[in-house]
Amino acid sequence: xxxxxxxxxxxxxxxxxxxxxGLPAGEVDTPALLLDLAAFERNLDRLxxxxxxxxxxxxxxxxxxxxxxxxxxxxxRGAVGVCCQKVSEALPFxxxxxxxxxxxNQVASPAKAxxxxxxARHARMSVCVDSTRQIDLLAAAVRxxxxxxxxxxxxxxxxxxxxVADAPAVxxxxxxLERAARQGAGLHFRGLQAYHGxxxxxxxxxxxxxxxxxxxxxxxxVLTALQHAGVACPVVTGGGTGSVAADLxxxxxxxxxxxxxxxxxxxxxxNEPGPADQALRFEHSLYLASTVMSTAGGTHVVLDAGLKSxxxxxxxxxxxxxxxxxxxxxxxxxxxxxxIVQPAPGAATLAEGEPLWLVPGHCDPTLNLHDQLVxxxxxxxxxxxxxAARGLSR
Amino acid sequence: xxxxxxxxxxxxxxxxxxxxxGLPAGEVDTPALLLDLAAFERNLDRLxxxxxxxxxxxxxxxxxxxxxxxxxxxxxRGAVGVCCQKVSEALPFxxxxxxxxxxxNQVASPAKAxxxxxxARHARMSVCVDSTRQIDLLAAAVRxxxxxxxxxxxxxxxxxxxxVADAPAVxxxxxxLERAARQGAGLHFRGLQAYHGxxxxxxxxxxxxxxxxxxxxxxxxVLTALQHAGVACPVVTGGGTGSVAADLxxxxxxxxxxxxxxxxxxxxxxNEPGPADQALRFEHSLYLASTVMSTAGGTHVVLDAGLKSxxxxxxxxxxxxxxxxxxxxxxxxxxxxxxIVQPAPGAATLAEGEPLWLVPGHCDPTLNLHDQLVxxxxxxxxxxxxxAARGLSR
Lengths: 394, 394
Hints:
Helix content of chain A: 25-40%
Radius of gyration of chain A: 23 Å
Distance between the termini of chain A: 48 Å
Pfam families (chains A, B): Ala_racemase_N, D-ser_dehydrat
CATH superfamily of the largest domain in chain A: Alanine racemase
Number of strands of chain A: 17
Largest interface: A-B, 86 and 86 residues
GO biological process, one term (chains A, B): D-serine catabolic process
CATH class of the largest domain in chain A: Alpha Beta
Strand content of chain A: 15-25%
Oligomer: homodimer
Number of helices of chain A: 10
Protein name (chains A, B): D-serine deaminase-like pyridoxal phosphate-dependent protein
InterPro entries (chains A, B): Ala_racemase_N, D-amino_acid_metab_enzyme, D-ser_dehydrat-like_dom, D-ser_dehydrat-like_sf, PLP-binding_barrel
Family (chains A, B): Belongs to the DSD1 family.
Shape of chain A: globular
CATH architecture of the largest domain in chain A: Alpha-Beta Barrel
Mean pLDDT of chain A: 95
Number of domains of chain A: 2
Low-confidence stretches of chain A: 1-8
Structural class of chain A: alpha/beta
């Protein structure tokens, strides 16, 4: 290489980009998170069409992608807005101009309530509560900032995490909320949140649909009791990727919150689809590009991607060829920065330097490890999207 | 609050800092990663003193902390430099002026070799190899950038990951390396790397020391064979936090690479100390500050810290009071952004808004989730250190 070809910053070391538009997808510097744009767009289209047909609003969960470019693609197709799970996570979406964000979670400290009330000056924001203390924190914050917040009471429909148990508990919170509103706080009751995370990952389709129906029935009983008490609930929000066919058919939800459908991870792919899920099959669009970095071991090879590049809480990744094709290679163990892979019996030798794509077991915490998503189409890099909310867990 | 007290940026939402120097440690916005500076400094002093006494150089692994401020504290006490695991991870350390970095890993792509050769213009860099192809990539890169690299051959002493098996394999690589050097590449053989990660986490002290001795003996046989072949190995590097007492006593290692000793995580704390470890007990210095965000469930409470704030690959976190005292509360399950905690039987009620500190199961991937480390002393925030290499896995 001539001296002219040396980078001008040779004496100021910086990190070169992992990819540039036009680069063959197999040549991205690894580990890097890749998005198959065609599969991604089909996933978005598929769910939006089904939600439209069901007359249910789609409010995808942005905790899965943390990426304003993806939120814009969802809203362009008809989504009413997005969900976020943390106040700080919502910030880059507000900054990117996303106009309607539901915080599907409780806010339990003055600092977080303050940030939320500030964000509500720039976007239509709503938030969940399950205690009077949270209402008091929100009331103080919206008074400080002169903003308004939609408030949804979360009910526990079997998840056993957050949320109150029954209609009397909802009514007690509503009374507290109305008192705060009468005293001038810009808090408006918007409805109920009813979410059951554990159902999402039930493998058996019949069991998953049955449990989703039971959870919806539990929410419906609370809703009916509120209606008898003269309380209108304009919104009932909840649901997820695993139960979305049942959620859309339930007659309960006015909006659904799936997140992972955008990517389809290894865990969700293990859900057996039932008859009702057939029109809602999602495709893997998310891959972690990795490279064989050592073959010295002989019977195994070592990839350059481990715990710091992909989440393993829902299982080890599936090993694919560049482009996503099956290989039969097995990812045996994740060290911090290494993945041990057993080549498929009879497969051609895996050479040092060879790229392999991995389907992560769990998409949400995998996205949370990366600063950017490399969008690919027809085998080439098309775009690089910042994962702007990565690490924003406050 | 008066209008004057409103922040000036009320119409330009930004994320307020989690903490400022002087803030009581229990009031940091959560989740936030905290460093108990006194315990941290004792850990650093303790290992440096023991390494000095053993006449072994200390080259702590920066993959554990990814934080140039911590590297500086280690070097100020006598460490000869640091290790990094990825080329991109080394970049912020070079930018921060760390002058001696060993990449304890293989580099298997031209882009990574190129960055390494660029970094070697600014700091004394070395790297591991276990193939001739890696040597060729390094040779091309140092030629391009006119830099020099130390090269260590990694040998497999039982880990079964990277590294060649025996002295003849080392000699074949040395021959290849010498040929590249004769052709003008700035590559210099510096010695051997011999690391066995699995030993680090053996619970039984006798078994751990026995396995460490076996691994060291395996390395010693390779070293002796090289000496018989007339090859000098100025450096033998390896070892980790779990085996460091044995490594220092082995007579094999000229330098050791422990990383986690800085923090002591939940997993390492489960190692039973043997007689030889007694002078090298490390203290928990790393905590994830969290807050009780919902108590609606009644029999459990929900923390605001889950998979996106702490790594669970080596077990769930231990629940402590602010300051690190034991509580007996049990962290039962980590969702993406929630932690389910069962209060200790007979404990005082855990109230919404109450801060709790968690000891992560595995420090390295937990640091990799956070952008900053909040240093505390005597119950107050003292400093905020960027985790500058977070996410740098390329």
